[in-house]
Amino acid sequence: MGAALWVLLAKIRSTVYRERERRDFEEELAAHLALAADENIRRGLAAPEASRQARLALGHPGTLLEEIHERRGLPLLETLAQDAAYGWRALRRSPALAAGSLLALGLAIGVPVALFRLTAILREPLPFPEAGRLAIVARSGPLLNIPAPLFRAWRENLSSFSGMALFDRQPRPYAVGEPRDAQLVLGLRVSPELFSVLGVAPMLGRTFAASDGPAVVLGYELWRSRFRADPGIAGRQIPIDGRPHTVLGVMPRAFRFESPAAPATLWLPIGPGAAEGEHSPELFGVCARLADNVSWDAARRRTDRAARAVAAHRGNRSETATLTPLADVGAARWLVPLRAGLVLSMLALLAAALTVANLILARTGGRRRELSLHRALGASESRLFRRLWAEGALLAAGGTLCGLAAGALLLTAARPALLALGHVPFRRFEGAGIDAAACGFGALLGVLAAAIFALAAAARRSTTGPLRQDPPRNAGRGRNLLLALQIGLSLPIVAAAGFMIASMGRLLLAHPGLEARGVATFRTPELSQPAAFCGQIRSLARALDTVEAASATNHLPLSSLGVWKLFRAEDLAGPAAPAQFSVTCPAYFQTLGIPLVAGRDFTDRDGPGSKPVAIVSQSFARRFGATSAAIGRRIRGGEPADPWLTIVGVAGDVRVPTLTAAPPRQVYRPFDQCGWRTMSVILKSRGAPPHQIGPAAQRALQGELGGAAPSITGSMEEIVGRTIGPNRSLALVLAVLGSFALALTAASVHGVAAHAARERTQEIGIRIALGARPADVVRLVAGRCLGWCALGAGLGIAATLPLAALFTGVLDGVRPLDPAVLASAAALVFGVASLASLAAARRGARIDPLAAIRFE
Amino acid sequence: MPAALLVFCLMATGSHKPRTELLPGTLDLMVLQTLQAMGPLHGFGLARRIEQLSGDTIQLNQGTIYASLVRLHQRRWISTEWGVSENGRRAKFYSLTPSGRKQLRAEAESWTRLADVMGRLLKLGAPE
């Protein structure tokens, strides 16, 4: 064992000092000959004969030198270096092909590497101790849908958890600081147990206890930026929405607990009176930690059973509970398109590798003579293979490096887009760069490409005979087969891009149910005179001549989950149904362009003293049968103390054009009857873009409402755009990949057809000399190539069928296997292939017959 | 005893085509044994000693000795040094290292065992 190591070391040394050792050995041989000659002379031979005898006894010095040299060094390494140099020269001879191949491989490796990294970020463990034991407990339906009384009942009866906590479905804006320089930040209300359920202790001070008055726990960033990292902050009073709150503590930097809607930077306690302005219970999220020794399955079973018992006790017929791992919340809608993109980009890599292999092979076809000579001179099988593979291996190595660089670049470029697209709870894309795992993945893809080149080289080698210069009869078959495979791989990519683009087109055409154009939005600080609010908004609309209409709502449509409540209808069997609950000022529907299908809008007369009224969405009204049948019916919230609300109008559905097909049911209430702490103001401009009227409107709004300045929360168009973000970015990636696949197809087909034409130059020359027209030649060359393309297209359609499963759930409005889209994708690929082969064949047909016959 | 072993090795390898019929490792053992017996030697000296020990009945292809020397040197069983020969010529001298000595002992032992077995085996059934 020790000896083997010494041998290796000696060989490495000899490889390094190759020249010196060679001279040394030559010297030694010379000495040997001299000594032998000396002895021969001593034995009485003449000097010339003595030298001759000495040389005879030693053997041929050249062979000996070679043998010793090989024994000393690492011959494999040296020939490898030679092969690499050979490959390098071959690449240098056709720089365009080399550069194109590197670009193609780089892109084809870069895209999956970037997607791999993003997927990995979504799968990273959450920043909590034993985060795998954390769950969101919910009733069936939307994930965060628990009223506080049900939570309390559950907490007493559900035994699978070591702790349960309540939190807001979405953060609210809070004005932190004195009113004149208040800063609006997003905060989340949570029940006091949350921090112990998560298992995170504060960095400073403490978290909530049951008996605290108005109190707040600050996030690290807010503490640093707003309070200059004041170490004595715990115990101080700070104004939040104008009311003093005691700062209890500061959470550590890595801590984040947020809703799926948006990040939060401070946490407030959920008081006993969790409902806000309305008696019906508001819905919350519930986070729980599984007790030790309880498996997920057991917890699911036990929770469901206990929840049914609780429901029966509370008089609800059927109410079940579901458990979702906290890590899965919000990440799922990203994972599906990311995985689909990853699979398709790997297909694109295969297609790219096949194309490059094909182009290299088509070129080595021209080197048939050189390779035959190699073999005739005794090059071994493995040596010939290495020669053929050298170019591909170099390209794969270079392509991997380019791919990693491209992946890093893509991630950097995608970062602002990812941040704008929306928020994934607990995950941060900001720091997303290439890491070791992504590098490993890229290297793996590079090895895959190199393996494809190796297979192609091995197939090619077997068609090279020692003294065979004429192409064997089936020489082109390997290339054609590769071509068919490559087209078969490209078609699913093009088809997927087609499906996605068709789906996006329908999404963009689909009316979201509101007119987003020209609508600017603002968020007010806590309202000081709620009673006058709707009037203030109306006079604002009159005062600003850039504004056509104005209104306000507690939560902007489409922007987030909103507030959900349970509603039961009078004279209607069935359990109470959850609906999104919006509080609006009059003219809300007019401002947003939501049609009133039946009945009337809220008016000034719907005040605190008058009959409680509501407007419902069409999807809600459908429970009563015909839309108009809903007018005059009564609904009420899920708790006994809730008032009966009379439906006075039915508004059109506002459809979130994303994965959920059904529009959410909506119940609208007049602001003057139920109030709300802070509101979103919406202004419809008279034609100017929303960002232009923004600052002036903000000042006017502050003047009208008094207090801190309301914040500008972007245009309605941006909010609509954000909801289709992930799908749009997937469509973009697929469009890039699809065009890439088409370009590969064109290059591949052109290369193969051009080579076929070159190989038959003589035959074509004779045909032209005998009177064949160029069209005949084109038919001859392109015809066979197109047959293989058609085979490839058939393979591609067959490959698309199983891949369609990836897209269920991502595609909206398009069946995953829409025949029209599939047919157009196939037609597109085949069309590009035909054009490329025709172009190559036409060039082949433009030869001078005399030159062609003299070609050899 | 070592000399007898050397002769046995040479006999075992046959005399007409020593290069191809040399049992693997045979020449290495001969070289180690010669260096042990004679002290530092240059390549030509080694080749001649081995030939002389066989009574010049074997014409060794002298070049093969160098392949063996490289092999032994790579394993650090012998060391090299440029020196001056008895008749005043510059030559490379090879000498046994401690690990070479150990290796020789081990290989000689296994060869002797094998030779014993072979001897007994060949006598089997042979007319006395």
Taking pLDDT < 50 over at least 5 consecutive residues as the criterion, the unreliable ranges of chain B are: 7-21
Mean pLDDT of chain B: 79
Biggest sheet: strand arrangement of chain B: 1-3-2
Most extensive contact: A-B, 27 and 25 residues
Please state roughly what percent of the residues of chain A sit in beta strands, choosing from under 5%, 5-15%, 15-25%, 25-35%, 35-45% or over 45%.
Answer: 5-15%
Distance between the termini of chain A: 58 Å
How large is the radius of gyration of chain B?
A: 15 Å
Helix content of chain B: 55-70%
Oligomer: heterodimer
Q: Give me the strand/helix succession of chain B.
A: HHHEHHEEH
Shape of chain B: globular
Which radius of gyration of chain A do the C-alpha atoms yield? 38 Å
Largest sheet of chain B: 3 strands, antiparallel
DSSP E strands of chain A, number:
23
Structural class, judged by helices and strands of chain A?
alpha+beta
Structural class of chain B: alpha+beta
Helical segment tally of chain B? 6
Shape of chain A: elongated
Fraction of residues in helix of chain A: 40-55%
Which tags fit this structure?
heterodimer; A: 856 residues; alpha+beta; seven-stranded mixed sheet; six-stranded mixed β-barrel; 26 helices; 15% strand; B: alpha+beta; 60% helix
Give an account of the 3D structure.
The complex is a heterodimer of chains A (about 850) and B (about 130). Chain A is an alpha+beta fold. Chain A is built from 26 helices and 23 strands. In chain A, the strands form four sheets. In chain A, strands 4, 5, 6, 7, 8, 9 and 10 form a seven-stranded mixed β-sheet that branches. A six-stranded mixed barrel of chain A has the order 15-16-21-18-20-19. Chain A is elongated. By secondary structure, chain B is α+β, with helices and mostly antiparallel strands. In chain B, about 60% of the residues lie in helices and about 10% in strands. A three-stranded antiparallel β-sheet of chain B has the order 1-3-2. In chain B, a hairpin with a 5-residue loop joins β2 (about 80-85) and β3 (about 90-95). In chain B, α3 crosses α5. Classes of the chains: A alpha+beta (about 850), B alpha+beta (about 130). The interface of A and B includes residues 25, 38, 63, 64 and 68 of A.
